[in-house]
Amino acid sequence: xxxxxxxxxxxxxxxxxxxxxxxxxxxxxxxxxxxxxxxxxxxxxxxxxxxxxxxxxxxxxxxxxxxxxxxxxxxxxxxxxxxxxxxxxxxxxxxxxxxxxxxxxxxxxxxxxxxxxxxxxxxxxxxxxxxxxxxxxxxxxxxxxxxxxxxxxxxxxxxxx
Length: 161
What we know:
The protein is α/β, with parallel strands linked by helices. The protein has a single domain, classed as Rossmann fold. The chain is 30% helix and 20% strand. It is built from five helices and eleven strands. It has a four-stranded mixed beta sheet with strand order 6-7-11-10, with helices on both faces. Strand 6 (61-63), helix 2 (76-84) and strand 7 (88-91) form a beta-alpha-beta unit.
């Protein structure tokens, strides 16, 4: 799970993370620093720096939203992780990172309303749904979809096993 160093959305990180752990998935948290701060001010220990992460080591790469997630919109390493992920997921504004990486062309996706234009401009087929699955791509539109997002990712990963 990739979080911003500051202002990642609490619900979009902690709710899916708890769902993953309850389903016996090991969660590795990545950011640009080793101690990140959520939108609500909660300090989160980071396991690996984004610069050191390798998508091939993980079943899924999940970009967490919140205002701080824009730090990854044009980050080359974030784009590399997105392109090389077995399953790629993003919630809230984070699908814009995927759009900017060029991996949403011709794919159905959703996001926070402010990013709809960016997704469409980068070739995504925007759908106004809470959670959208298109192959190994899973996107969600915001904190209200965090539980469904987490459950959908678990279902996808269990199907693959």
